UniProtKB/TrEMBL annotation:
InterPro entries: Methyltransf_11, SAM-dependent_MTases_sf
Highest taxon listed in the record's lineage: Bacteria
UniProt keyword Methyltransferase present: yes
An annotated Gene Ontology molecular function: S-adenosylmethionine-dependent methyltransferase activity
Protein name per Swiss-Prot or TrEMBL: Methyltransferase family protein
UniProt domain Methyltransferase type: residue ranges: 48-118
Transmembrane segments: none
Source organism per UniProt: Sphingobacterium alimentarium
Key words, A-Z: Methyltransferase, Transferase
Keyword Lipid metabolism: no
A GO BP entry: methylation
Length: 237
C-alpha cells in the first residue's frame, strides 16, 4: 500500500468530503450481524466502524476520537486480526493504492462467512459547467502527467479492480456538499498530483488556474458541489 497523504493530514481531514448516509442506509440491511467492522485505509477516520487501520500515523493523529473506534497502524494487505472477525469490511477512496490480490485474500481471511465488503470512492466533482471546465483542464493539462498510475482505477470506477466476491447491485449515489471557494482550493491542494508537481517544480500548480477558477466561481458565497460515488459491494465467502 502506498502512502501519499501523510504530507498534509490536517488539510486532508479538513477539506476532503465525508460520505453520505445513503451508503450506510444501503449496507446495514445487508448485514447478518452488526457487531464488528473493519475500515481499512481509514485515513483520518471519515468512514470508520470499530476497527480502523491505516499505514499513516500522521493521518490517524487527525482522526476523530470516539469510544467504539480502535485505530491501529497496519497495512491493509496483512493485519493481525483473527480469522473470521468482521461482519463488514469497508475501504473508502483507498483501495486503488493497495496490492489488490493480497488485500482480497486478507478480506477472505478476516471476513465472517456471508459478511459484506464495500469498496467506496468518488469521481471528479461537478459544480457548474464553467467551473468544471477549469478544473478538468487543470487535471488533464497541468497536473495530468503527475498522477500516479493507480488513479486509472478511480477513472474506471473500480471496474478493473479484481473483485472475487459475490457482487451485489448498488444504487447510484451522489455526495452533495455546500462549499465556499476557499474550501474548493483546499480540496484541490490535497490531490496527490498537486503534491508531486510541487515537489518537482517548487511551485503550486493551482496558482496557474486561480484567476480563471475564481472568475468561473463568480460572486456566490457558497456553491453546491456534487461528487458521484463509486460503490462496489459483495458478499465474502
Amino acid at each position: 500500500m502506498k502512502d501519499y497523504f501523510s504530507f498534509s493530514p490536517e488539510h486532508y481531514a479538513k477539506y476532503r468530503p465525508d460520505y453520505p448516509a445513503a451508503i450506510f442506509d444501503f449496507i446495514y440491511p445487508l448485514l447478518n450481524d452488526k457487531s464488528v467492522a473493519w475500515d481499512c485505509g481509514t485515513g483520518n477516520g471519515q468512514l470508520v466502524r470499530v476497527e480502523a487501520t491505516d499505514i499513516s500515523s500522521q493521518q490517524l493523529e487527525h482522526a476523530f476520537a470516539t469510544e467504539n473506534i480502535n485505530y491501529t497502524i497496519q497495512p491493509a494487505e496483512k493485519t493481525n486480526f483473527p480469522d473470521n472477525s468482521f461482519d463488514l469490511i469497508t475501504v473508502a477512496q483507498a483501495v486503488h493504492w493497495f496490492d489488490i490480490d493480497k488485500f482480497n485474500e486478507e478480506v477472505k481471511r478476516v471476513g465472517k462467512p456471508n459478511s459484506i465488503i464495500a469498496m467506496i470512492g468518488y469521481e471528479l466533482n461537478n459544480i457548474t459547467l464553467e467551473i468544471d471546465a477549469v478544473i478538468r483542464y487543470f487535471y488533464k493539462n497541468i497536473i495530468g502527467e503527475y498522477w500516479d498510475a493507480e488513479r486509472k482505477h478511480l477513472e474506471n470506477r473500480y471496474q478493473h479492480i479484481a473483485f472475487p466476491f459475490r457482487e451485489l447491485e448498488t444504487p447510484a449515489i451522489q455526495n452533495i456538499k455546500l462549499w465556499k471557494f476557499e474550501h474548493l482550493l483546499g480540496y484541490l491542494n490535497t490531490c496527490s498530483a498537486v503534491q508531486h508537481y510541487k515537489d518537482k517544480n517548487n511551485t503550486n500548480p493551482i496558482d496557474l488556474i486561480h484567476e480563471d477558477l475564481q472568475k468561473a466561481w463568480g460572486s456566490a458565497e457558497v456553491r453546491r458541489v456534487i461528487f458521484p460515488i463509486i460503490f462496489r459491494v459483495g458478499r465474502v465467502k
